[in-house]
Each structure stands twice: as structure tokens, then as C-alpha cells.
Amino acid sequence: MAEKEYLYYFSLDGTVRFRYYHFLKKGKITRFRIQFEALIEGKWYAIVRYDTAHGFPHRDLIHPDGAQDKLDFPGWDRNEVLTYGERDIKANWQKYRTEFEKEMKK
To answer: Can you give the pTM of this predicted structure?
Structure first.
């Protein structure tokens, strides 16, 4: 069994970060949580999260009011969703932050 956890900052000013965690058992991902977070107006917000909470891999797109849009990945295994989620967050974090901030202003 092996765990891996780290925090990675996307910006030099320390206002956007990527939180990563996975747990391996017999060489397979059994649970994971990866999350994009942004510091906005002095407060940290989770904006996008991929995880295995609730017993299945999914994405939560989190809104400023706390509402979440859940996206399931039927037929995908945990490794596939973890890899996809990591690539998605790293490629699209700026878009996710911009949309989140627009929603905050409504």
C-alpha cells in the first residue's frame, strides 16, 4: 500500500494551487482526490475537484454559492479518471478560475 500527497502552486504569487492525493493498493488506485484551489479576496476556494468520494470516480465543479455540478465517468476506471482530471486541471485552471470569479460577481 502506498500513499502520495502533495501541493503544487501554479503561480509565483501563490494564489492558485493544485492539491493531489492518491492511495494505491496492489498497484491500483483505490481512492484519490485532486483539486484546483484559488485564493480570491483573501479566501481559498475549491473550484474543481476529481475524487472517489461516494464510492465512484467523478468531477465536482464547485460554484461560489457552494453548489456543485457532478460529472460521472461511466465505464472509466479510477486510474483513467485520475489521469484525465490531472490533465484537465493543469490545462484549464485559468478558465475555471475566470468562470468562478464571474459567478462571484453576479
So the answer is: 0.93
